[in-house]
Amino acid sequence: MPVGTAATVKALTPDMLAATGARMVLSNTYHLMLRPGAERIARLGGLHQFMRWPRPILTDSGGYQVMSLAELRSIDEDGVDFRSHVDGSRHRLTPAGAVEIQRLLDADISMVLDECPRFGEAEEAVAASMRRSMRWAARCRDTFAARPGYGLFGIVQGGVHADLRAESAATLTGIGFDGYAVGGLAVGEGRTAMFGVLDVTTPLLPADRPRYLMGVGKPADLVGAVARGIDMFDCVLPTRSGRTGQAFTRFGTLNLRNARHAEDPRPLDESVDCPASQEFSRAYLHHLVRCGEILGAMLLTWHNLTYYAQLMAGMRAAIAAGSFSGHAAAVSADWARGDIEPWSVVQEDV
User: Fold this and answer.
1) Is the distance from CB of 261 to CB of 283 less than 8 angstroms?
2) Angle, to 10 degrees, between the axis of helix 324-337 and the axis of helix 219-227?
3) Which of 32, 141, 142, 249 is the most exposed place for a label (fewest CB within 10 A)?
4) Where are the domains of the chain?
5) With bands split at pLDDT 50, 70 and 90, how would you rate the model's confidence at 83?
6) 334 catalytic per annotation
7) Superfamily of the domain at 14-234
8) Catalytic residue among 60, 106, 114, 269
9) Of 114, 234, 264, 269, which is the active-site residue?
């Protein structure tokens, strides 16, 4: 899912976004409750109408942003008080309130309110945080109004501790949700530890419900997580990287700021079905990035999201064909090979 935090995926119109192959986008409860406000969006017809996106929308509950962005906050059994990072105003977010805000937004998939502990906290603190999140999850489930076409996902917490992850998964499956997310990862623990958590957690989640890894990640993270049973992802990486001159390709990541691209007439990656690769050269994209032109950010964002969508589509097809292991090995081999030689070297060879 491309990330449209504030009801927009940066640098793309909805039509451009649909052309990347995106099926669903993520928006954020925390940011939208602060501005323009959930009630205003509801009066304007809901988030789909507001941002002109007719496909599904998942809204993060805001718990992570409350913990990571707000300088002043206090947590109790009933919720969290925090100051807005926008204007310093005080707000309170409760489990029931988070569900109600997401209802006003008209999110297709709502997330329970949870507490995301920082990486490196003591196991006792992580355990207390996880168990409070589980109590909040039960209250979210009680508040959520089940209706056709809408769902509520629980979020497994527990840091890098296998026993806490197992306890969290058991609690959530006992409550019963439409899907299950694995939260609290990609916060500094590293890929090996993240995959270790998934090895423990995903087998404990229902196979007939979507399993969603929140905030991940790099292309290799996606392939490794799918191999461990994950179905859904979101991450700002492809869009943020596009705005800073980086492009993801089947042979790795390119930095279009580098001078090696200044006279290179070749495409970024001819296998990616987007304007950046099909219509423009590396030299032109390098020029746009070095000049700070908005078109550069648009084209590279479009390219990166298309690459991610094609990567996911390839894995879906391989799973359906029963050939995922071979497909994953081939994708990894291309990454290991690295990018094609600089244009200057190709000219010398000719």
Assistant:
1) yes
2) 160
3) 142
4) 14-234, 240-343
5) confident
6) no
7) Queuine tRNA-ribosyltransferase-like (3.20.20.105)
8) 60
9) 234
